[in-house]
Amino acid sequence: MRGLTVTTITAVAGIAAALVSDAVATGPGDVTGIVVVAVAVLAQFPILRVIGIGPDDLSTKDVLYVAFMTFALWFVSWGILLTAGV
C-alpha cells in the first residue's frame, strides 16, 4: 500500500507540474519549467509526512525514485502539451 501511495503521488505531482509549467513558462527553453518541477518534487515530502510516510521510512533509493518519477511524468506530459499546441 505504501508503494502504491508514493507512486500515485509522484505521478499526480508530475502531471500537475507539467500543467503548471505549460501555464507559466513561455516555451521549452524557459527555466521556469524546471523550477516548477523542482518545487513539485520538494512539495511531496511534507505531503508524504502528513499521510504517515515520514523521513525515517524513506531511504535514499526512495527519495531518488520520487524525484525521477516526478521528473519523468513532468517531462513526458509537458512534451505532449508543447507539441500539441494546447
From TrEMBL:
Keywords assigned by UniProt, alphabetized: Membrane, Transmembrane, Transmembrane helix
UniProt keyword Transmembrane, yes or no: yes
Ranges annotated as spanning the membrane: 33-51, 63-84
Superkingdom, natural source: Archaea
Family matches, as InterPro entries: EMC6-arch (IPR043941)
Protein name, per record: Uncharacterized protein
